[in-house]
Amino acid sequence: MASRLRSLLGERLQTDEPLAKFTVARLGGVADYLFVTQPDDPIEKLAAVAQAAWDDDLPVRIIGGGANILVSDAGVRGLTIINKIGQVKFGDWHDGRTVSATSGTNLIMLARQCQQQGISGMEWAISVPGSVGGAVVNNAGAHGSDMSDSVADVVVMDAENGVQLYTTADLAYDYRYSTLKARKDRRFAVLLTTLILPHDDPKQIQAKMDEFKAYRKETQPPGASLGSIFKNPKGDYAGRLIEQCGLKGYRIGNVQVSSVHANFFINIGDATATEYFALIEHVRAVVYQETSIMLEIEIELVGDWA
To answer: Catalytic annotation on 298?
Structure first.
């Protein structure tokens, strides 16, 4: 196993490495195999490593900023890739494309670079942890905007079919959904996306970013959390329903429903992923019992949960 990976990566291929330090909530067990990319690695390296793992019959899990995922205490089988390949280019290309970004690009960094270039449309991402690749797959968003507003196309490495170009029609974007997210096999890797974003006054862009940062600081808790745990049900808010059920501050082990925003759960120190998931299930059950609304989990469970 992993023979091609070893020839490709040498000492950069790590074994039995803890993943908690690569996740926002500081939770999770070990990866069987781990490859941590660097920002200046060519994106072709990511594609080659993923394909080598697939050819060795190893499952591949790619993690960007480590937000929006709950990694099992039992760890992750196969190869985990920490994707930090962050390269952004600006131009005026065909059909209004103005930005291209590799999948490991940090969303906050992208928002700042767009502002400096006088390019609007990514202001919502200024305080959002995570990477472009994860945002593309999950249709991430905030403040009434999301990736579907600006994605032109996405370059994807497919285990069976090689490099593919996905259009927005192929992605079939919906609220926190894409056809890539719906793929349970995970045998693909987002490499690059191009965005259609308009030009604007950098000062106006900065003002909007400052407004969004202030709002986030006022309404969302600090600390080690995964972001919004549940999707908002149609016509309502998950946080409001959780608060209505008297669950603000509720705790299992070292994981607590935030007293600032009830749709955020905080690792208050030395928590386990098992405790985190137990709190998720408890909150879902109570909200369903009290309101007959079954909340849908927005975060993704990664690793062995059997």
So the answer is: yes
